[in-house]
Amino acid sequence: MSEKADIHDYLAEFDDIPGTRIYTAKRARQGYHLNQFAMSLMKAENRELWKADEAAYLDQWPMSDEQKQAVLARDYNRLLDLGGNIYFLAKVFSTDGLSFVQAVSTMTGMSVEEYQAMMNSGGRSPDGVRSIKDAR
Amino acid sequence: MARISAGIATSHVPLLGVAVDQDKTRDPYFHPIFSGYEWTKRWEAERKPDVILLVYNDHASAFDANIIPTFAIGTGEHFKPADEGWGPRAVPDVIGHPDLAWHIAQSLILEEFDMTIINQMDVDHGLTVPLSMMFGTPAAWPAKVIPLAVNVVTYPVPSGNRCWMLGEAIRRAVESFPEELDVQIWGTGGMSHQLQGQRAGLINAAWDNRFMDSLIGESEAARHIPHIEYLRETGSEGIEMVMWLIMRGALGPRTRLLHRHYHVPCSNTAIGHLVLEPC
Question: How far apart are CA B145 and CA A21, in angstroms?
């Protein structure tokens, strides 16, 4: 075995990574309907209904009010906290006509231009953002 | 008998598909990426493999949050490009090889890998972008393709060691198929990238290159890298690199490097590409 056999130890380590939400079973359960809503936007006819009235479209899904508000606000960090997964949420920002770089940059506190400049000069260094407890 | 003649590793960033589809591969941003695949395109045109076993992950396209198979093999006659939210890519349908796919599926289950069998599914950029990188824009893909989808999204995803073992079992399965077939195995995804949260944009070129080094020759070190190391060192989506280990495991005890390429960035991602031969 190359992994820790204990599921509690395995999961606990994930909370030690700064600025990162690993999509665990707990998040997948919390975000199930949110992610299924996002998935529905893969169909062109659903995208039309969504664009016509976002709030009414969301009301068809048994999501929490917090989740609905975060979708309407396109608050992707909040959506991650509420169980969203980036590959599902990608259907929302793709429907908005945003690229991955444009959407992802909104989670970093940087402008799109600043974020692109960082990527073009080699990306974000892992130094200092590997572990919260070890500050490395 | 069928045999695995080579292994390819490559990133599968969706933006690369956009660049191909919009004929932008010679633009200054994309040229340094695509130029690293020119060698492989020429090599593939000479090698003409019969079948590609293409290891990739579905990005919430064929599988939604409802059904989450750890390892799924496509046994269908053909697979259509998925609509990922902006319409399907205008690339040829992917033609499967049901005889070999079912043979591999049955053999793997006998070897205690509990495969999910998929007869009908659409395939997303994870599968079609590598085909575009290696074959360009043909009217039809020049090889049959067996999709092998791995869950690298919902945790726990399979361990690197399990992926390597699956590759070893795939090699035995292919070698017990009676027909003469030249089969390649491609492991896709990665390299370092994180698409979410305040830490998004993480790139670790030193780690990525050590990982590529470790797949050449006899080393088995990569099979023991724990998930937490991928996540800390290469970003949350860097975990896709476990799929490269299925390819590496299928090549047997020793590999020889034919071609290597690395470039930062493409969109949010470090591009890595290897062509390996068993030896």
Answer: 34
Which CATH number belongs to the domain containing residue A41 in this structure?
1.10.700.10
| Cβ–Cβ gap A126/B207 under 8 Å | yes
Shortest distance, CA B67 to any CA of chain A (angstroms): 11
CB–CB contact A94 B84 (8 Å): yes
Range of the domain at B81: 3-266
A27 and A90 inside one domain: yes
A41 and A91 in one domain?
Answer: yes
How far apart CA A91 and CA B201 sit, in angstroms, is: 20
d(CA B122, CA B59): 11
Query: ipTM surpassing 0.90, yes or no?
Result: yes
* B206 within 8 A of A25, measured Cβ to Cβ: no
Does residue B92 belong to the interface with chain A, where contact is any CB pair within 8 Å?
A: no
- Inform me whether the C-beta atom of residue B80 falls under 8 Å from chain A C-beta atoms: no
Per-residue pLDDT of chain B (279 residues; tens, 9 = 90+): 999 999 999 999 999 999 999 999 999 999 999 999 999 999 999 999 999 999 999 999 999 999 999 999 999 999 999 988 778 999 999 999 999 999 999 999 999 999 999 999 999 999 999 999 999 999 999 999 999 999 999 999 999 999 999 999 999 999 999 999 999 999 999 999 999 999 999 999 999 999 999 999 999 999 999 999 999 999 999 999 999 999 999 999 999 999 999 999 999 999 999 999 999
Contact B199 A18 (CB under 8 A): yes
Question: Are A106 and A88 in the same domain?
Answer: no
Inter-chain residue contact B160 with A2, CB threshold 8 Å: yes
A76 with A46, same domain: the answer is yes
User: Is residue B261 annotated as a catalytic residue, yes or no?
Assistant: no
Residues A27 and A80 occupy one common structural domain: yes
**pLDDT tens digits, B126-183:** 999 999 999 999 999 999 999 999 999 999 999 999 999 999 999 999 999 999 999 9
Q: Catalytic residue at B125?
A: yes
Closest CA to B147 of B169, B121, B167: B121
Query: What pTM did the predictor assign?
Result: 0.97
Q: How many CB pairs under 8 A join A and B?
A: 172
Q: Which of residues 210-239 of B touch A (CB under 8 A)?
A: 223-228, 231-234, 236-237
Smallest Cβ–Cβ distance between A23 and the set B66, B83, B155 belongs to B155
Distances (CA, A) of B18 to A6, A65, A99, B13, B132: 42, 36, 11, 9, 10
Per the structure, the count of domains in chain A is 2
Phi-psi region of B71 (alpha: psi -120 to 50; beta: other; left: phi over 0): beta
